[in-house]
Amino acid sequence: EVQLVESGGGLVQAGGSLRLSCAASGFTFDDYDIGWFRQAPGKEREGVSCISRVDGSTYYADSVKGRFTISSDNAKNTVYLQMNSLKSEDTAVYYCAVDRYYCTGPQYWGRGTQVTVSS
C-alpha cells in the first residue's frame, strides 16, 4: 500500500522558516517523481515544487522561488521542503504527491499538513 505521510507543519510568524517532511512507503521511491502542492482556503490546489527521479532536477512555482528548497533522502525514502522567508500568503495545507510525469499528474497523495503564517 502506497503511503505518503507529511509532517512539519505548524504556526510561524512571517519571515520565519519551517521544514516539511514527506515519508514515503509502499513503492519503489526511485521510480517516481515527488512534489509538494498546497491548497489555501477558497483556492484551488497548486503545485509548489517537484524533484525528478531521473536527474534530480527541480521545479519551483514562481511564488516560492528563492525561498523554498526541495530535497530528497533516498536512503530514508523522504522528501523535504525547506521553507524560508515565509509570507502570510504561504498559509495553506501542504501535500506531497508522486507520479512519473514530473508532478503533472499525481497518482498518490498524502493527507497534508497545515502551515499557517501569521503576519
Structure commentary:
The protein has 119 residues and is mostly beta strands. Helix content is 0%, strand content 51%. The chain contains no helices and eleven strands. The relative contact order is 0.32. The mean pLDDT is 96.
Brief account:
By secondary structure, the protein is mostly beta strands.
Task: Give the secondary structure arrangement, pairings included.
Blueprint: E1 3-7, E2 10-13, E3 18-25, E4 33-39, E5 46-51, E6 58-60, E7 68-73, E8 78-83, E9 92-99, E10 108-109, E11 113-118
Parallel strand pairs: 2-11
Antiparallel strand pairs: 1-3, 3-8, 4-5, 4-9, 5-6, 7-8, 9-10, 9-11
Note the run of SSEs as H and E: EEEEEEEEEEE
Please report which band the strand proportion falls in: under 5%, 5-15%, 15-25%, 25-35%, 35-45% or over 45%: over 45%
What structural class do helix, strand and pairing data support?
A: mainly beta
Largest sheet: 7 strands, mixed
Total beta-strand segments: 11
Q: What is the number of helical segments per DSSP (H or I, 4+ residues)?
A: 0
Radius of gyration: 13 Å
Average pLDDT confidence is 96
Q: What is the helix fraction of residues, given as a range?
A: under 10%
- The end-to-end span amounts to 40 Å
Tell me the overall shape. globular
